[in-house]
Each structure stands twice: as C-alpha cells, then as structure tokens.
Design a protein that fits this description.
Length: about 550
C-alpha cells in the first residue's frame, strides 16, 4: 500500500513539474514575441530614433545634435514639442567649461529662446571665467515635466558637463502623465510611468502608438494653453498627492544623474508671477450665506471700500478657503490698505489654489528644497531672491522671463557656479551687456511684446481679471516699440550685430538672427550669406 501511495505522489509531482514547464514555456513565448517583433522592426528600418541626442559628423568632426523626433515619445506627432537646435562637439576642448540647462519652457527661454536663460547665463559666466570657453547647452523643452527631464538627464554623460542647472516644476500637472494633461493618460503610479517611458524607447511602442492615434483621432496641432481649459484641478484633488510624490522622486533622480558624471549640480526653486497674474482658473461657488458675503465683498471692492471688502472676504474664507479668486481679491484689497505682508500670503494662496495649474506651487518648491538637501547639491532660492522684485521687472507672463528677468536668474545661478568678484557689475549694466552680446534689438523687444499680447488675447488669459486692460497696455507698448524700431537705421542695426559677433564669433544663432534682420531690411544677398553659414553650422 505504501508503494502505491509513493507511486501516486511521484505521478503528481511529475505532473506538477510538467505543468510548471508548460507555463514557463508560455511565459517565455510571451516575452519572446515582443522581443522578436522589436528586432524585426529595427532590422526593417521602421520608425525613428528615440534618444534626446544623436551622433553626427560635421565636416569630419563628431558632434552631438538634438533629435527632432524625441518629443514623439510624449506628444502626439501633430502637437509634438522639440528642443532648441543644438550642436555639441563630442570632443571637449581642454579650456572648455560646459553647463547643461534642464527644464521646461521657462528654462528654455520662451517666448524668444535666442535671449533665454541658457544664452544669458553663457554671457554672464563668460565674464566671470576669463580664459575659459563657456558653452551653455540648452536641453530644456516646452510643455515637458520631470518624467521627460529625467529621461534627458540619462544622456548627460554624452555632453561631459562641468555643471548642470535644473530649473523645473511648472508643468507637473499639465505635462505628460499628469492629471491635467491632454497629452498622455494620467498615471498615479511612478513605477507605471517609468515603465511606460522605458517602453517608449522601442519601435514596438511606435507601432502601437500609431494604431492608437488612428483609432482615437489625432489633434490638428499644438493649441497652446487653451488645450487644457477642461483640465481644471481643485487644490485638494487627491491626484495632486501622486503628482508631488512623482515629482520629488524624479527630481532626486535627475540630481543624482547630474552628479554621477562628476558635474556640479545647481537646482533652483521656480519663481512665478503671482501679483500680476490673476488666477487662470478658480473654483467659486458657496452656500447661500457664502454667496451673500461674496456679493457684499465685490460691491465694497468696486466702491473702493477696501476695509469693508476685506471684512467680507475674510468672513467668507472661514467658510471656504478653496477659491483662488477669493484669495487674489483679498490680496489686492490688503495691498490697497498697505498690508503688504498679508497680501503676499494671499497671492501665494491664490497661486496654490489656481485650478489651471500652469505655475509651480508652494509644495513643488518645498520638494525642490528637500531634494537639494537630500542630494547635497548647490541650491538657489529664486523664489526668495525675487520675492520683492515687481513681477513686471521679471516676467512677461505667468512664468516666462523678460530679458532682465533672465539676467536676474542667471546671476543667481552664476553666483553658485562662479561667484562674482568684489565690486560686481550692477544689474542694469549686466542687462545692457547681455543685450549687446546677444544683439537684442528694439525689433526683438517688439516681437516679444507682440507674441505675449497675442497669447493674452486667447484663453485662458483673456478670461482673467483685468484682461482687457492688460491687452490695451501691451498694444500701447507695441506702438512705442514699433516707433523706436523704425527710427533705428540699417547701419545702426548692423553695427550692433557686428559688435555682438566680435565678442561671439562662433555663435551661429547670432548669424541666423542677423540673417533674418537683413532679410527684413531688404538685404537679400547679406541675408543669404548669413543664413547659409548658420545652416552649415547646424546639421
């Protein structure tokens, strides 16, 4: 009997092993099929490269160039965003000091990247590092967030940076995989996002993505901030906890990736316009008692009875403090009564409660501070440093910098990398130097104002408080700049470019800029010469 039992046990064990073997084969097959498909797609030459940088040979010299298809991994092709054109020699010169700037549109230099943070920082550092060839590499992109920046940071060793600057945090909600995006489905799990980003490197992902887009229908193109109007999130939305968790994890990884190659890493808090940028979206709606207080406060504010308005608004806050507009109106009234410190707190609260979350909030900047401490990297607190500077002296809109604003931020970052000697250049002189070095003409000022005015005429800006007055002021500035630009002779403009190119003879961006200006002035032959030289410099 014992023998029969033993035989039965042996049979069951054998059957179990056979089933385990079969399951293992099925699992192996399931893994093998996509691998074989991936290999076949690559051998067939299907798809496009997925890295941020691509190798290239320019006149026999090995260089790294930007991959214009990189954004396809995170955006629908018709609405994809691209990096600024870059060409970086693979061989780094002994006297070269390289800095890589990582971030989103504010770091990239929107609306005019030719005069953005990387370009300005290059000028400022060159003044402070005589005898070194300073190269600041613009690796920032519009509309991305930390999920994408982390992927770009993996390629830092190719660029051999001496320093890495990270200015990041405005797009965590509305960027890829965020809960306010229209670009990719929201994902709460950081592990799932990282897996999705890893899979996006494959050709198989390109095939599946194409099929999904055909089935769902592709957007006609990039629609700017108006694309996100239906993506409002109240400040206590539970999905924000996942956003903050993912941002903190990604940022710490980015800082570690920057340090891994021996580069000095500088991370900054993200400054935004609060006073001059009313909420882009606000959750308003109260109980009947709250409605009465709201109407009472509005009437008092309109009548410039600011103490009465403050009283009504503060009473309403005790019932519900979730309205961005309520905090903003209270801040304005307190400012009218000279209560600037109290007003500042409510401007901050208004930004934090904005339901269209295009600006870094308090929690994002707390996570930046924490990441700097944990990873022991250099830290710049731009929010604190610019706290008492009027928004109009820093920003052109909600987050993007004017030339003077870029100079202010560049000086803060440069202080961490190469502190200015005693008797530092006054700010006004540094702004003038940067404008001259980059050939920032009245025509460029006019283009910048026109671009911002056009944005302000569309959602969500045209729904803001005092939107019409802001647009009218911009139009008046346009008229003044147009008159100033028209009085600038062709000779004066070209003399400005000549001085700039004497300082920066290898700057192909200046060549392209001068070519464009020459064309506008009717100098077609000169324009063709400049533009051909710029094209030759940029594959």
């Amino acid at each position: 009997m014992g023998t029969a039992v033993n035989e039965r046990d042996t049979e069951e064990e054998g059957g179990g092993r056979r089933w385990a073997g079969r399951l293992a084969l099925v699992a192996l097959g399931a893994l093998l099929v996509p691998v074989l498909l991936e290999v076949a797609l690559r051998l067939a030459g299907y798809g496009h490269p997925t890295s941020f940088l691509l190798p290239y040979k320019r006149d026999g010299e090995r260089v790294w160039v930007d991959n214009q298809f990189f954004g396809y991994r995170f955006f629908p092709p018709q609405a994809t965003r691209t990096a600024q054109p870059l060409v970086v020699p693979a061989a780094k010169a002994p006297d070269e000091y390289r800095v890589v700037v990582l971030g989103e549109s504010a770091a990239m230099g929107d609306p005019l990247p030719d005069f953005g943070l990387p370009r300005v920082l290059e000028v400022v550092l060159a003044e402070r590092l005589p005898g070194r060839r300073v190269r600041v590499i613009n690796a920032a992109m519009t509309a991305i967030n930390s999920h994408v920046v982390r992927e770009i940071a993996r390629e830092l060793p190719r660029l051999q940076p001496d320093a890495v600057v990270v200015y990041l945090g405005n797009n965590e909600v509305i960027g890829p995989y965020g809960p306010g995006t229209v670009l990719r489905a929201f994902a709460a799990s950081g592990a799932w996002v990282r897996g999705s980003v890893l899979f996006s490197r494959t050709r198989l992902a390109q095939v599946l993505g194409r099929g999904r887009r055909v089935a769902a229908g592709e957007p006609e193109g990039w629609g700017g901030m108006a694309m996100f109007l239906k993506q409002e999130l109240p400040w206590q939305d539970p999905r924000l906890a996942h956003v903050y968790g993912n941002f903190g994890h990604n940022l710490e990884s980015i800082l570690r990736l920057g340090r891994a190659g021996g580069a000095r890493v500088v991370v900054s808090t993200v400054a935004v316009s609060r006073r001059d940028c009313p909420p882009l979206g606000s959750r308003n709606g109260w109980s009947p008692a709250g409605d009465a207080l709201w109407e009472k406060g509005l009437r008092a504010e309109q009548a410039e009875e600011f103490d009465a308005a403050i009283s009504s608004y503060e009473a309403l806050l005790k019932l519900d403090d979730g309205s961005a507009e309520l905090h903003y109106r209270l801040a304005r009234c307190m400012e009218q009564r000279g209560r600037d410190a109290d007003a500042e707190l409510h401007y901050i609260a208004a930004c934090d409660r904005d339901t269209l979350r295009f600006r870094a909030d308090t929690r994002i900047n707390e996570l930046v501070r924490r990441a700097a401490r944990r990873e022991k990297v250099d830290f710049v607190d731009a929010v604190k440093a610019l706290r008492h500077v009027p928004d109009a002296d820093v920003f052109v809109d909600h987050v993007h910098f004017s030339l003077a604003g870029n100079v202010r931020l560049a000086r803060l970052l440069a202080d961490a990398l190469a502190p200015a000697p005693a008797g530092a250049v006054p700010l006004e002189d540094e702004v003038r130097r940067c404008a001259e070095a980059l050939a920032f003409t009245p025509w460029d000022q006019l283009e910048q104002v026109e671009t911002i005015r056009e944005r302000m005429e569309h959602p969500p800006f045209n729904r803001q408080r005092e939107a019409a007055a802001r647009v009218a002021a911009l139009r008046a500035t346009e008229r003044a700049l147009a008159e100033k630009a028209r009085t600038l002779s062709r000779d004066a403009t070209q003399a400005l470019f000549a001085r700039a190119m004497e300082r920066r003879p290898d700057d192909w961006t200046l060549l392209a800029h001068r070519g464009g200006r020459r064309f506008e002035e009717g100098d077609v032959a000169g324009a063709a010469q400049d533009l051909a030289a710029a094209v030759a410099a940029v594959p």
